[in-house]
Amino acid sequence: MSTHSHWMQNLPTHNPLNKDLIADAVVVGAGIAGLSTAYQLVKAGLSVVVLERDQIGSGETPRSSAQVTASLDFLYQELVTIHGREATRLIYQSHTAAIAEMERMVQTEQLDCDFRRVSGHLVPAPGDDATVQKEASVHRGLGFDTRLSTPPAWVKGFAESLEYPQQGQVDPLQYLLGLAKAIEKHGGLIYGSSPVLSYTGDHVVTEQGHTVHANHVVITTNAVVSEHGKYSFRLTPYRTYMVSLKLTEQIEPVLFYDTSDPYFYVRPDGDMLLVGGADHRTGEPADPKERWQTIESWARAHFPVGERLEQWSGQVFNSADGIAFLGKTGDIYVITGDTGNGLTHATIGSMIIRDQVLGQENPWIEVYRPDRFPRGNYRAWIKDAGRSIGHVFDWFKKSAEVQNLQPGQGCIVRQGLSKCAVHRDEKGELHAVGAMCTHLGCEVSWNGAEHTWDCPCHGSRFASDGTVLTGPARAPLAKLEHPEKLELK
C-alpha cells in the first residue's frame, strides 16, 4: 500500500554551502522550528545562516495534520499535576501566544498559506464524558477562555465538548515556503544538501568541510544529534497515522480531538477531512493497514465522509512531562520534543530563543528549560527509558527466513553472529543492510507503511537502502552485498 501525505509537493531547492561563513547565528534544520527561529532572528537584525541536511520540507512538516492549537497531547488536568498551576497557566498562555504569533507573521509577510482561525473541540471517547467535564473544571480554575459547548450538528455521536476558541489551521509547506522567502528577503541565507558533521557553541562544520562561525548555534533537527544521549533518554518516539477522506457534505472548518488513548485528531481542508491517530511506539510491531482502517472506521462513525483518498504516517518525539525542550542548554540552543504539537512548540521555541539571544525577559524560559529532567512524571519516564533499554536485547530474538518474504516486506535474519535487515522490493529482488542502528546499537525493524528500517530505542529511521532519514543516528546502515546468498540458521 503506497503512502502519500496530503501536503506533499515539490518545493524550491537550495544550493549547498560551498564556503566558510561568519554570521551572528547559525540554525541547523529547515523545518518549522528552524525557519521560525531564523525568521525571528533576522527580524531582530541578526545575520543568520540556515543549514539543512536535505531540503526545506523534507522532514516531518509535510506529515503533520497542521493543527495550530493550545489543546495538547497531555490534558491540562495532567499538566497541573506534573507542573503545578502557575506553570500550567504559562503553558496554555504560550501556546495561545504562538497561534497569535503565527497569525502575525502570516499577515506581516503576506504568506499565502491558508492560515485561518477556527474553533477546536475536545470530545469524549465512548463512556468518557467525565474526563471532559473534569478538564473543563480545571480550565475554569486556571482562568482559561475555553467553555463547554455542543459540537456542530453535522457531527454524530459526541456528547458535550470542551471548546477552544480561536485556534488555527494552516498549509504547513506553504507556510514553510513563505517563511523561507521572508528570511531571504530580510538578509538570511539558506543552504540545502548541507548535512552538519559537528558543532560547538561558536561554529558548525558541514560534511563537505565548510565552517560557519557564529555567536549563537541553534539545533532544530527534531531529534537532537551529537548530544551524547542527552535527549535520547528523555524523549520517546512514536509513529502516528493519518488518512484523508472525501467529505460528502459541506462543513465548517473545525478541529477535533478526543480523549481516547491514543487519541484521534481531525481537521478539514477544503472538500477533504484529515483524520489521524492510532499512534504506537516507533519500531514496535504494528500493521499499518489496520491502523489506517481503525482511523477510517472511527471517522465514518462521526463525520460525513466518503472514499479514502490518501494515507500516510509521521513521527513525533514525546516528552514524559508533556511539553517540549526549548531554549539554551550549555552553549547551544535547541528545539526538540514536539510531543504532538510541533507548530506551536516550534513557534514558542523561536520566541524563547530570540529573547535569550537578545538578552530579553521571557516568562516561558523556565517552564520549557531544555536541560530539565521530566517533571513529576518520573514513573512514565523510567518506564519508557526501560523499554528503550529492553530493545537492546532484541539481538537474541529468533530471526526470520528470507524465503518467506513477499514483495514489499522486510525482516531480520541471522548470519552467524550478526544479523541482517533484509527486504524484498516490489520486483521481487532482495536487498540487505546491517540490522544494528548506528546510534546506540539497537536492532531495527521493518516499517511496512513507509518501507523504512526504524529503531525502537530512540526513533532513528533509515531508508530501505540504509540511508539516514531521521536522527539521532547520523551514519547509514551498512550495505550488504549478495543478500540472496545469506545462509539462514
UniProtKB/TrEMBL annotation:
The keyword Iron-sulfur applies. Residues 397-489 form the Rieske domain. SUPFAM superfamilies: ISP domain, Nucleotide-binding domain. Pfam families: DAO, Rieske. It comes from the Bacteria. Keywords: 2Fe-2S, Disulfide bond, Iron, Iron-sulfur, Metal-binding. PANTHER family: FAD DEPENDENT OXIDOREDUCTASE DOMAIN-CONTAINING PROTEIN, SARCOSINE DEHYDROGENASE-RELATED. This is (2Fe-2S) ferredoxin.
